[in-house]
Amino acid sequence: MRVLVDTSVWSLALRRKDGHDNKEAGALKKLIEQGEDIFLLGIILQEILQGIKRADQFQALRRYFEPFPLIELSRDDYIKAAALKNDLLKKGIQASTVDALIASAAINKECVLFTTDSDFFHIAKHVKLQLLQ
């Protein structure tokens, strides 16, 4: 299975509260251990890294994500994301530019999106976006 993991899941997986993992972190760990293909988009990697203030933590996290391939986007992918955003607007669904890009990339690159962001659950009701349940 090809899985595009959204920032919301990575953020939860990278946080440890009282030493206990949350259910999303456990599910992500299981996907990785099972050898599922886990992907990132550049914008997701940027969102994860941009909040890190200490240089040593930034470099450690950057290295942590190196094994996970980035999905390369083409001009056509950005055009499809814009069309998706326009289609959603016609249906009365608000989606940010970044969310439209992530949803479109997941659809076009045949990935299941693993997210906790409720905006994607609304989007999935109107397009062929597959979400990891």
What does this structure look like?
- The chain is mainly alpha-helical and 133 residues long.
- It has a single domain (1-133), classed as 5'-nuclease (Rossmann fold, 3-Layer(aba) Sandwich).
- It has helices spanning 7-14, 23-33, 42-49, 55-64, 75-90, 97-108, 118-124, and strands spanning 2-5, 37-39, 112-114.
- The chain is globular.
- The protein starts with a strand and ends in a 9-residue tail after the last helix.
- The model has no long low-confidence stretch (mean pLDDT 94).
In terms of DSSP E residues, the strand content is: 5-15%
First-to-last CA distance: 13 Å
Give the fraction of residues assigned to helices: 40-55%
Strand order of the largest sheet: 2-1-3
Q: Nearest-angstrom radius of gyration?
A: 15 Å
Largest sheet: 3 strands, parallel
Question: Which terms summarize this structure?
Answer:
133 residues, mainly alpha, Rossmann fold, three-stranded parallel sheet, 7 helices, 3 strands
Topology:
Blueprint (H helix, E strand, L loop, with lengths): L1 E4 L1 H8 L8 H11 L3 E3 L2 H8 L5 H10 L10 H16 L6 H12 L3 E3 L3 H7 L9
Parallel strand pairs: 1-2, 1-3
